[in-house]
Amino acid sequence: MSKGGDDQPQGAPRPARCDAGSLLAVAGALLAVPQAATAQTAPHPAGTDDPPSDRKAEPAHASIPEPAFAKDAPAPAEPAGYSDRLISDGKLAPDTSRSDEPAHNRSGRIRSIVAELGGTLISPRTRINGVTSSGSDQVQREIGLSLSGRYQTDNWGMLGIDGELWRGTAGRSGTNSSRRLQGTLALSDRRLALGRGWLADTTLGTLSAPVLTLMSQQPRFYTPSLPLLGGGVVLNRYRALTPSDADENPKPVSTVNLAIGQPGLFGGLRLGNFTGLGGLAISAGAQSELSGRLTAAFQGIAVENTRDPYGVVFGTGDGTTAVPRVTSRGGIASLAWRAPGWRLQANAIVSSVRSTGGSASFIASSGLAAGAWIDGSHRSGRTTQTAGFYYFAPDLAWGNAAVINNVWGGYYRYSTSSQRWRWTGTIDAVRSVNRRGTDGALATADVRRQLTFTTDVGVNAALRASQGRVTAQALGYVDFSTRFGTTRAEAGWSHVPTYDLYRVAWNQTWSLPPSLPAGARLTTQIAFDHRRESELVATTTASAGSAHSHSNAVSIGVNAGANPFAGVGFDASVVYSTSATALSSSVYGPVDAGGGVLSMLSTQSGRTLTANVTASARLSSKWTAIASFISTRSNTLNRYGLTDPSQSPIGTLPGDYDSRQKTSFRLVAGYLTLRYSMSAGSAHQTNGLRHYPFSGTGELVGRVFLDANGNHRRDPGEKGAADILVYMDGLYAVRTDENGYYRFDSVAEGPHRITLNADALPLPWSIAAPEGAGTQGTYLKTVDVGVRRTTELDIAAERE
Question: Which domain of life is it from (predicted)?
Answer without folding.
Answer: Bacteria
